[in-house]
Amino acid sequence: MENSKEISALVKLLDDPDPEIYEHIEKRLLEYGSEVVHFLENAWEQSLDSLLQERIENIVHKIQFSSVKEDLNLWYQSGAFDLLQGALVVNRYQYPDLDEQKIILQIEEIKREIWMGLQYEMSSIEKIKLINHIFYNVYGFSGNTKNHHDPQNSYINQVLESKKGNQISLAIIYSTIAQKLDIPVYGVNLPQHFILGYIDESKREEHEFGVLFYINAFNKGAIFGKHDVDQFLRQLNLDPLPGFYAPCSNVEIIRRIIRNLISAYENLGSKEKVEELKELQDILTNTDL
């Protein structure tokens, strides 16, 4: 790497006691971006100086957070077509060294298991029952009812490892698998409870918004109808707005993940994380997507 000599020299100066010199070095390293992370991590491992280690951690975090913001903005500006990719970008906020390929392969494995049981003549309900059997009974996914507000429930890698998540993380994995199998399951932005809808565009005249039925990914894929949504909204004293019944955009889903994380970190008193997540939230401001 042609810049390695300068980067190494800058890293050696990171323990300078003069704040102005440190500020200049930090600025220069931040300009290099992700290519300096390896040098910084090596220096951190070789150092016993707590101030130097703290400075390195701060710079690495700033670089990685900047990368997350850039990637989230790119995903958003490119049309936000891939929901899983959006969730993985947010995942990298907490897990910057995330092995995305590992997650994709884990999801592919579940998809393949379901695909082997699919038959052409199956009805929409039968297909969902098959997904439910594999997803909840064979792989053991379930809603995390004990630690519902734990931020780990919103990170896809943690949900795939622990097999426990919240309404939205389970719904993202569930709908991603379904769509990979050409089963039209999409997110529905119901207040206080994120759900899924089975969509058939050809049945819009018989079923409002083309939703044949709804699915509760948090409750083992329980199937329910529009009247259940009506009743839920009445309990919350909310008007039955179209957005509570119709499929929502991928951007809305990622916004909701970020809102969940903000709420979770507020409960934990993690002010810095809350402020950074609000920056991610601000990237997804255009309501057209």
Automatic annotation (TrEMBL):
<comment type="similarity">
    <text>Belongs to the UPF0162 family.</text>
</comment>
<dbReference type="InterPro" id="IPR032698">
    <property type="entry name" value="SirB1_N"/>
</dbReference>
<dbReference type="Pfam" id="PF13369">
    <property type="entry name" value="Transglut_core2"/>
</dbReference>
<feature type="domain" description="Protein SirB1 N-terminal">
    <location>
        <begin position="103"/>
        <end position="259"/>
    </location>
</feature>
<protein>
    <submittedName>
        <fullName>Transglutaminase-like superfamily protein</fullName>
    </submittedName>
</protein>
